[in-house]
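Entry 0007
Protein: Septin 12
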Amino acid sequence: MDPLRRSPSPCLSSRPSSPSTPPCEMLGPVGIEAVLDQLKIKAMKMGFEFNIMVVGQSGLGKSTMVNTLFKSKVWKSNPPGLGVPPPQTLQLHSVTHVIEEKGVKLKLTVTDTPGFGDQINNDNCLRPLDIEFLQRLCRTVNVVPVIARADSLTMEEREAFRRRIQQNLRTHCIDVYPQMCFDEDINDRILNSKLRDRIPFAVVGADQEHLVNGRCVLGRKTKWGIIEVENMAHCEFPLLRDLLIRSHLQDLKDITHNVHYENYRVIRLNESHLLPRGPGWVNLAPASPGQLTTPWPFKVCRGAHDDSDDEF
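Output (structure tokens):
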């Protein structure tokens, strides 16, 4: 059966809403605010986990983009000209590193998809393979599309290309992150609307520093000058980094766990009722339509297994 017909749309599920019970009047402090300190101490001890999968044709700079994103040598790519043949089949490659900043540790797992779409040529819009892939992927993970090597386009070409991609996403019902149905309040709606208007982000990757006006900047050196990665006048890489790390990282993890993983888990549980009964069979009642679209009411990024508390 077609997974597209069986997998519920992420937006059919809703995350746990804020309690609506009216507050109780307190006679004095009891130390509830100390919970925040406890959570911080626990988080500092345990660290965080984050999973990212990068997808795109060979030579688009996926490895450089990941290295730029975390300002680390997370991924090593084969330099051009070494005679390494392109992969003939799609094989997933993953690397894991621990990155530490000001005492906060992040266990980062990056998965690459070499060979994806290398044999298809369509530079004007989303390719048929892209559309099919994104339609399936957006029901399983959070998808954040980008325009790679944006420095090869003029500003006018970049905007025209962005509008074509946005139109393709709407036409084919591809719901990318941040999903509109998950805006919890007016502040979320304002912030996420600005981000949605800029998606796909036009990015330029660079993992080397150059001296510009007496300061070191990440950038790419060309015969016309230095393309500064973190300069919004040059590209939108700061927007991508803010979305994935500074402002929405925990939200990415929450949606993956509470929505994507729960939908996947319910589907697999329902599939188990179609299997022959054997030793150790547990008779689970089939989920109702309401259960299919409502995640468990607790919060704990990517993938079909529960690395969620540990998401692209």
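Curator remark: The first strand starts at residue 48 and ends at 54. The CA atoms of residues 212 and 226 lie 8 Å apart.
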